[in-house]
Amino acid sequence: MRKINQLLKKYELKPRRYEKNGKVTYIDTSEGKFVLKENKHNQDIYNYLDSRSFDYYPKRLNSIHDDYEITEYIEEITIPREQKIIDLIDLTTLLHNKTTHYKEVDIADDKQLYEDINNNIAYLNSYYSDLITLIETKVYMSPSEYLLARNISKVFAAIAFAKPQVEEWYELVKDKKKKRYVILHNNLKLDHFLENKNSYFINWDKAKIDIPVFDLYKLYRHHCLDFDFDEILKRYESSYPLLEDERKLFFILISLPDIIKFDDSEYNMTKKISQEMDKIYKTEMLLTPYFNNKESHN
User: Fold this and answer.
1) Which residues of the chain have pLDDT under 50?
2) pTM given for the model
3) Domain containing 93: what range?
4) What is the CA radius of gyration of the chain?
5) Is there a domain that residue 78 lies in?
6) Which residues 6+ apart lie within 8 Å of 97 measured at CB?
7) For position 221, what pLDDT does the model report?
């Protein structure tokens, strides 16, 4: 707290009240309300955003060299979540459109990603094979174990779907000379999106430059059970169409199931498995029209 008070004094801000919320501290001062958190020194990202006229983030008040960053506090207005997710995806397409650039491909990067995904597929297959073998040896399954056993074919189907898709994706990218890059917020979810007179992304700590599908993937992981993602994806692509290899990579990433570890109460495990099965089912429903359309054109 002493460092914080020294920093506020340096910028002539007299604190009246502090409110801690996770890694963020809200401060009421004589000059208004501000947000203070540890400085992640990502000023290069902000400079790049500014150079592309993308200023939809809280403005910083202090030096980039300080231990903490002080930003303006934005009072959020209440809007329906269904509208908010649409506004979020619209701002995402704006971010990607304004920061799109092409650069030469590092073949090693795609090769590494190819190997990482294949290793993950092999691990998932082995993990769930061992897990279901163990469960099926029990005379009496718990409710959560029985739920997983009843749906294990869906898990293996999702894994089996991904494997040939990875090979097809790698065929598309292995000879590419250039690739499309954007600035990624890299942690998209409703909690990191505010609306007032304008829309804003907050919490840019994980921001980086990479291919656009990773923003969609993070958003899907956070909200695939909350919204109709088919409409979200269509809205995104109406302003920022994915390339064939980008779309295929996105489909691969979202199709892979998470690891389920039996490390919680029976109630929570049943809930966790049910949510994972719902996610697998929703992903299958999202992907089916794309692959049906592809087959009909072949």
Assistant:
1) none
2) 0.92
3) 83-296
4) 23
5) no
6) 239, 240
7) 96
